[in-house]
Amino acid sequence: MNFNMKKNFFEFFAGVGLIREGLSSDNWICSLSSDVSTDKKDTYVKNYGEKDFLLEDIWNISKDISALEGSAFLYTASFPCTDLSISGNRAGLAGIHSGTIKAFFEIIKIKKSKNEEPKVILLENVNGFLNSHNGKDIKHTIEAFSELDYYIDILEIDANFFTAQSRKRIFIIAVEKSLAEKEMKIKNENEEANWWTEFDSNKKIRTAQIKKVILNCPDLKWGIFKINFNNEIHNDLEKYIQKNLPMTSKKWWNQTRKEYLYSQMTRTHKDRLDSLVNAKNLSYSTVFRRMRNGKSTAEIKTDGIAGCLRTPRGGSSKQILIRSGNGSWDVRYLTSREYARLQGLRDSYKLPDIENKALFAMGDAVCVPVISFISKKILTPLYEQWISDNEQSPL
């Protein structure tokens, strides 16, 4: 049996392995993972072993692909968002971090010259990628795929349809032409009206921003998958909280720190907190520090959904948790285990021992059940179609 008949994948920009986690639940086999971060490698290896891991800069891999032995049906790349995020410097694909996607395309080109290119590619990034450099970055990316004879579908999925975290991310699925023509509805002039009807049928995951990208690049290779998406928003933050954390823990803030946080709230947010404190039942809310008119303010969020988890480069990036009710309230930061739960991870997943490293690992990762959803709805059906076409059985 050929190596490329496995239901396998190569994972680039692997981070701490949350794409692998999501795909593994759908029986995908990881043949290789790579990342440049030693911290991320340490966490990855603790959970999945070091057999498949390659610690290397992707630019170096693109210059010598000997480590990428054989083929994989699927390539995944959760490439750095630093230059694309609204919280980053917005240098786009010209930036030193997000620009590493160019090395990824070099690898695909070389593999294609050897007839070892992947049949399917999954890219993940922040939704800011859709408008980075006025849409030029996403256009260049889709052009690169089109030149390699892949057809593209783009989804924008918010993690709050799967866990109690607001986290919008875009997912670009690129499919090799012969497989795309069987599994995707291809955009063409003769059936364009029907194509757009299908596109507009599910606005939860095919947003106006994505539509704008396609309208601005009408001649590129577009296709869409028929997906039934009727998930409801998760607003059950309490489910993800470590309620057994003792009040003697140093994680809970002292009175002085609490009072300072309260002083940063506007009257509206103070009234909101006071109402929660006077309630008969305990409840959990998150608080965000934001700059308003040049002043740092604290804003309480009571919709049962955590904000988007971020890497803890500063205090304002950490999410604050308030437990309130029965006449009192207590404050602390969300723990790394709570971050992990909000990313859809099992509690048996081994986090870094240093809390800040664990927060960084989770803030820089993907939401696991979102990946599982994409796998079950798109990636596995593509693999099964390909197996059927080749009239062989997978290993």
UniProtKB/TrEMBL annotation:
It is an enzyme of class 2 (transferase). It catalyses: a 2'-deoxycytidine in DNA + S-adenosyl-L-methionine = a 5-methyl-2'-deoxycytidine in DNA + S-adenosyl-L-homocysteine + H(+). Signal peptide: none annotated. The keyword Methyltransferase applies. It comes from the Bacteria. Belongs to the class I-like SAM-binding methyltransferase superfamily. C5-methyltransferase family. This is DNA (cytosine-5-)-methyltransferase.
